[in-house]
Specification:
The protein is an alpha/beta fold and 355 residues long. The protein contains 17 helices and 12 strands. The chain starts with a strand and ends in a 5-residue tail after the last helix. The model has no long low-confidence stretch (mean pLDDT 92).
């Protein structure tokens, strides 16, 4: 006989952080609800699709709760076997933590179906809505942060990801590199972005490393509590000569996409579009000059020296003044300044190493 229990939202999230390998996590909300707000680690496989949920909602509005519940059972019954088969395959023999929007009819029905398939379940009390409230509260608490700062092109993100320390990778959460050139694909909704950040803070570390970011990372906005905590936090500044920063920028934004199969002509269009997005801030003359240098460099996309002709002035004349202005506006305690090796050693010594 399969067991079905209720789990508190905060406990479900802690299990997701600490015991993810021993449990499976299923979100049976519709596809549209999932896109509006997802929790990383949960697998979305709706018990009611967007269309089915819409029909049930109309029924509830015009005929009441009992009729809506009956329609929901009627709509899902033909697909019960295939949906349960997918859920049990996803569970792979592990108990399943199940949520819907409020922990009501949909998650109860999913747990009943899984029980019939001899799968143990834990239904989240209050569903996604309650877990979302826990995550929002986590972002509003005083956050013990250490900020990794440095001018554009110093390789802050690479260093952050190589360090085995408690950290929050904000750019990974936003699926964006944080500059006009940083688009990596579709970004999450603002709610999903906040959920991703908050989940990273649930490990309860003594101090978290974050990369210095502006208010917006692409379309995603840093939560106010997090941004204020970053302004108040001590800073480690990564420093690198301009030529090395230009080389790193070329490797990340030119060489890497080509090695991943992007055609040089398509890459040039992408890079030019990024320049165009900041044309007003660059000024017409500087924009035109950088555009010409970019076009010339793309004739030999794998030659970093040619690309230095547009990357170096872009860093020195556009990004560096903006970085220095932002840094000076919010004075913070600088704990350490140095090159990559020095910062790596300092941060590894200061922060709790993740094993």
């Amino acid at each position: 006989m399969a067991l079905s229990e209720i789990v508190a939202p905060q406990d479900a999230l802690q299990q997701l952080v600490q015991a993810a390998a021993s449990l499976a996590f299923l979100d049976v909300r519709s596809e549209g609800e999932w896109v509006e707000g997802e929790i990383p680690g949960f697998h979305n496989d709706p018990i009611l699709t967007n269309l089915e949920r819409h029909e049930v909602g109309l029924c509830y509005k015009h005929q009441g709760q009992d009729a809506a519940l009956a329609l929901g059972h009627q709509l899902t019954a033909p697909f019960k076997a295939e949906r349960v088969a997918r859920w049990t395959a996803m569970a792979n023999g592990k108990p399943v933590v199940v949520c819907c929007w409020r922990g009501g009819a949909r998650s109860r029905l999913a747990c009943d179906w899984l029980a019939e398939a001899a799968v143990d379940t834990l239904r989240v009390r209050g569903g996604y809505k309650s877990m979302r409230a826990v995550l929002r509260e986590a972002l509003q608490q005083p956050l013990p942060l250490l900020v990794l700062s440095g001018a554009t092109g110093t390789g802050k993100t690479r260093l952050l990801r190589e360090l085995a320390v408690a950290k929050v990778d904000l750019e990974a959460c936003a699926n964006h590199r944080g500059s006009a050139f940083g688009r990596l694909g579709e970004q999450p909704s603002q709610t999903s972005f906040e959920n991703r950040v908050a989940m990273a803070l649930l490990s309860r570390a003594a101090e978290y490393l974050v990369e210095d970011e502006s208010r917006l990372i692409g379309v995603n906005e840093l939560p106010l509590g997090l941004k204020n905590a970053m302004y108040a936090a001590p800073v480690v500044v990564l420093e690198l000569p301009l030529a090395e920063r230009a080389h790193l920028t070329w490797a990340e934004y030119v060489l890497e996409p080509i090695q991943q199969g992007l055609a040089p002509a398509e890459l040039q269009v992408r890079l030019q579009a990024a320049l165009d997005r900041i044309q007003r801030k660059l000024g017409a003359l500087r924009h035109a000059s950088l555009s010409r240098s970019l076009a010339d460099a793309m004739r030999e996309p794998q030659d970093p020296e040619r690309h230095a002709a547009w990357i170096e002035p872009l860093l020195a004349d556009y990004y560096d003044p903006r970085y220095l202005h932002a840094f000076d506006r919010q004075p913070r305690t600088v704990l350490f300044r140095g090159n990559r090796a020095g910062c790596y050693e300092f941060l590894s010594d200061r922060l709790a190493v993740v094993r």
